Amino acid sequence: MNIELALAEELKNVLHELYQIDIQADASLVQPTRKEFEGDLTIVVFPYVKLARKAPDMVAKEIGDRLCERMDALTGYNVVKGYLNLSVADGYWLERLREGFADERYGLFAQREEAPVLIEYSSPNTNKPLHLGHVRNNLLGHSVSQILMACGHPVVQVNLVNDRGIHICKSMVAWLRYGNGETPESANIKGDHLVGNYYVVFDKHYKEEQAELIAKGLSEEEAAQQAPIMLEAREMLRRWEAGDPEVRALWEKMNQWVYAGFDATYARLGIHFDKTYYESNTYLLGKSLVQEGLDKGVFQRHEDGSVRVNLTDEGLDEKVLLRKDGTSVYMTQDLGTAQLRYEEFHPGKMIYVVGNEQNYHFDVLKLVLGKKLGKPFGDSIYHLSYGMVELPSGKMKSREGTVVDADDLMDDMFEEAKQSTESLGKFDFQPDEAAALYEMVGLGALKYFILKVDPAKNMLFNPAESIDFNGNTAPFIQYTHARIRSLLRKAAEQSVNVADALPDGLSPEGEEKLIVKKLYQYPQVVLAAGENLSPALIANYVYDLAKQFNHFYQETPIMRETDAAKRLLRLQISQWVANTLRNGMKLLGIDVPERM
RNA sequence: GGUUCCGUAGCUCAACUGGAUAGAGCAGCUGCCUUCUAAGCAGCAGGUUCUGCGUUCGAGUCGCAGCGGAAUCACCA
Predict the structure, then answer these.
(1) Could you identify the residue whose CA is nearest to the C1' atom of nucleotide B36?
(2) CATH 3.40.50.620, chain A: domain bounds
(3) What is the ipTM of this complex?
(4) Average pLDDT in the A190-219 region?
(5) CA A488, CA A286: separation in Å to the nearest integer?
(6) What is the 8-class DSSP label of residue A111?
């Protein structure tokens, strides 16, 4: 049991004895003492003064006396304006150091036997390559998966690829008309980019044809409907749905190009899925659920033949679940895939990492499955909603060519890292080690830049300003790690065994103790990040830790220390910091180098 | 117009879920490399936490009203 919880437990007893106040013992009643005050742990006594009918300082004193009597780990206390600051014995921190410094898996909890958490993310369309918006989605999904696994939850990562519909038909039509049989190999570009290019080609010709029709006197709307290239795309979609072998073969071919491209992008981002669903397989699902709702009387068949659900009681609107021609809409499909996944994995929780533009959709999905259909998994659906990535010019618009392409962005980050490293004069790397380092630093900077922001918030990305490598950034943290690894290499060279037992009677003091206390908090931070599904908590923690260590490093000799016991203590703290930085960054999907 | 989310230093973001004097980075200015890695460290400057009212021992955090921004309110996904 950690000391906060033990303390809270005793606090509960003491409050009952002294004032007959009954509380729930909760570790959040105990917080770390702020640096500017003496002590290690703080209890705020204001909540009890009214019931105790005494002055705050008196209450704090009485509680402090009793707690110190009861707990050996406490050595004393002071009271400042109703804040009870308790001091913890040095030996306690020494024990934490002994337990933690060599633990390669520090902050990773044992996996529990329980229903898995299913998490869906990425969910691309196959008509264009991944862009910055997908990058935020992918990084969030991957990081949250890592965090949940670190907390001990089994996790199933799934992707749902939107591989069918009018969008891919547009690329197909344009490729047939203007492609001259071009392939990724012949054009030497990634398949997803190739298909994306034809999507743009489609749009260009579509606009031209519309303009011609308007010149002939058609209205804008008529022109949009009747442009020949659009009619072809619709016909293509119709033939696809009818199972036309020729259309299906083309569709297969172009989608395979796209998947090869996606796979490369995913691999570079460092993400993978346990299972990939394709909408071409799932879009017909859900109809039986709609029938079930009709049978139960919770859905209504409208006079025009469409099936709808009335959610006005819940403060929402009426929502169509089945078109009047009986075909599925997006919602129908999502109802079906939720059911499918439930049957397949029996998850305790289903997380959907999807942008906040779909908040309404997920409100409806949850309500329909839970309240209306009474499905047990309705309430287990959680929409991890994140804000848009905006450019200085506003939202990214694919039609206006302002999207930031994921592959280009990663190339740019690599290049920035290369230039930055070279300008710092660090040339003593072998070519392959250098390339690996640039990739690690460049992608690290990108990932950290995105993940340190609270998911709920919109964020700004300015392509004109490169992502920083100084300050609150991944390279700063990677650098701190590399420095420590360098120290540890030096120790090994000088035959100092960091794993040696520390002599008794020596304890972390001053800055050393501050770092040990910070390290001690890490597992709690992991749990908090898991509960809040927030990689930003990890990012903030890791930065604070690195910053604190750098300060220490600057002022305190470590390998230069001549007292062997002190040197060993500091090396162990350093190693613990390095492990924690590495493990924390891993949760963000960021690797750390041995040297940089 | 209804609903939801957001509003903190010039800019980008924090603030342990209601606790002590709101913190970092960038940008600006000052110092520190004959070396445990300067992608670092120390310092200066920068704030009516959008506004107002309320809740209580205590509010950036909770409630209400307003202002500003975003998303959404499709038989698109």
Answers:
(1) A559
(2) 117-275+283-294+340-395
(3) 0.95
(4) 93
(5) 58
(6) P
